[in-house]
Amino acid sequence: MHAVIFIGGEYPDTDSVQQICQRADLVIAADSGYLNARSCHVPVDLLIGDMDSIGLSESELPGDLEVQRFPRNKDFTDTELAIQQARKRGAEQVILIGGGGGRLDHLLGIYSLFQRTHPPDSWHSSHGSACLATTEFRRRLGAGTVLSVFPLGNKPVKLRSTGLHWPLDSLHWELGDAGISNISTIDEVVITVESGMALVVLPTKEG
């Protein structure tokens, strides 16, 4: 099952969002993420959170929308609650949409989700995309595309790559290392994860 979770904050253009949602079996909105989904004309199956930022009354929501309300003082963020629900309902892939701009602590909070036991698989905001690589990252990006790589977790990270200007082979990654602004040299980039896991970040293409 594929689940898409809309969160608050800036998101990609509507066409990109709708393309991401084409394979979604379950769409969840975390609080004000509902407004993002509605703006992109994507139907929501579940609205979850403390509803402190959505700015809509009960009567303004669809009557058939499932809503799970939580107190504002809670142990998990609305995004964490949404991910938990997606996994509980059988989602094997979880995609986050939104989260661009806004408070720095919120951005770092989303990044920290990729360090968890059951992390999201990708995150798409107005500023680019971040994709979790646990076995292999393979993408047709076109030559000249900029991408960055960050090791995740406490285990040693070892990667191999094809199609990058600065190959990742033979590098011994430690927590805190980063491969910033690498460049694709051919159409398809492949990053193979031999141990550990990594986050591949792709900036939004201009134009």
The helix tally amounts to 4
Tell me which CATH architecture of the largest domain applies here.
Answer: 3-Layer(aba) Sandwich
Task: Give the neighbour order of strands across the main sheet.
Answer: 4-3-2-1-5-6-7-13-9-11
Radius of gyration: 18 Å
> Which stretches are poorly predicted, pLDDT < 50 over at least 5 residues?
none
The counted number of beta strands is 13
| Apparent shape | elongated
Number of domain modules = 2
Mean pLDDT, to the nearest integer, reads: 93
Written description of the protein model:
Residues 142-199 form the Thiamin pyrophosphokinase thiamin-binding domain. The protein has 207 residues and is of the alpha/beta class. The chain has two domains: 2-126, Rossmann fold, CATH 3.40.50.10240; 133-203, Thiamin pyrophosphokinase, thiamin-binding domain (Jelly Rolls, Sandwich). It has four helices and 13 strands. The chain has helices at residues 14-21, 33-39, 78-88, 104-113, and strands at residues 2-6, 26-30, 46-49, 66-69, 93-97, 122-125, 128-133, 136-140, 146-152, 158-162, 179-183, 188-195, 197-203. The strands form two sheets. A ten-stranded mixed beta sheet has the order 4-3-2-1-5-6-7-13-9-11, with helices on both faces. Strands 8-12-10 form a three-stranded antiparallel beta sheet, with no helix packed on it. The relative contact order is 0.16.
